[in-house]
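ugh ok fine here u go
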Amino acid sequence: MGISRRTLLQLAAGTGILSRAQARQSRTGLKAKIVIAGGGFAGAACALALRRLNPSIEVTLVDPDDRYITCPMSNAVLVGLRDLDSITVSRRGLERAGVICARDRVVAIDTQRRHARLGGGVVLGYDRLVVAPGIRFLWGTPQGYDEAASLTMPHAWSAGVQTQLLAAQLRAIRDGGVVAISVPTGPMRCPPGPFERASLIAGFLQANKPRAKVLIFDANNRFPRQDTFTEAWHSLYRGMIEWIPMTEDGGVVRVAPAEMTLYTANGAHRVDVANIIPPQAPAELAVQAGLASDHGWCPIKPLTFESQLIGGVHVIGDACIADPMPKSASAANAQARQCALAIVASLAGREPPTPRFESVCYSLLQPGSALSIHGSFDVAAGEIRQLQAEEHGAATARQEVRNAEDWYRHIVNDSFGV
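structure:
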């Protein structure tokens, strides 16, 4: 990680600390300074929206990576329908929009002084701070599943190296082998994702290792679009995918990576490839800053996405509590745009607009078919409420593939400006 001299000068006029005079000037609206921690869909979309809404606002996006590898479409990479470059996004579009991109990480927040300290020692003053840290994995659940184990039993729930590891294991599996997917309980990123993954892996095996099969060990008893997925599996991959719910001993409690064995309450299951998706929580910054509540996630005010626990700090994306919105790229983008609108309104002394959020999750079933879940949400009585949900499935399966591709191009452009 590092910050160029030019960026340092942009960030802090040579010191890395916003002077009191600059801070006072900023708060009068002459030059508002917004710092955004985290450059995924939520953070990037908020940065871009702020610059488009008011180019006089100085926006600094802090993220250790100069590129972002998207989780949407990463399941297609696993089975060779895409390559990793096709889901890798640069920061150039943000920089063209005037966003200052600092390759570092926010490691501490002083909410009294309104300072954000970076890992490299730079301290940024801000008028508003937006925290979009994403998730962290709760290592140790199942027992024996830690970062070292993920090199043998990849989770591939953050795209990049993990995606490549799991893809290589799938290519090397023996015909007649077993791929296991372990689904955690609790809130998680992209709830339909494991079942899209099972579908695409089954399609890959059907074409290349037709005697292999997929077992889904699920710590839950229901999953999104269950009837539609199940019907598609019966039609496309008869006998290749078996879903094991919690009530039928589907919860994995321990893993033994060296033996490639998964243990449930009532048995041991030796497999050829194990995709263990661990339970999730907000990234450590949210916890350290006091933005997370006792139950682990970050409560927010739905009109502004300002933290309910700390004033002047907004939390968007997977880390926040925005139920019934899913934890997805589409929801993160919608939250980011509302957060940006609310910040601009606040700086101008106006009330934030009343939002209407749209969210969509696409799941590929095979190269030529897909399904989707569309949701509309608004805010009433201080809470986010779902207005409607539409499900599109087999009847429009081919059109849904085209819709998914169009949606992906649009959301990358709308979030990253590329």
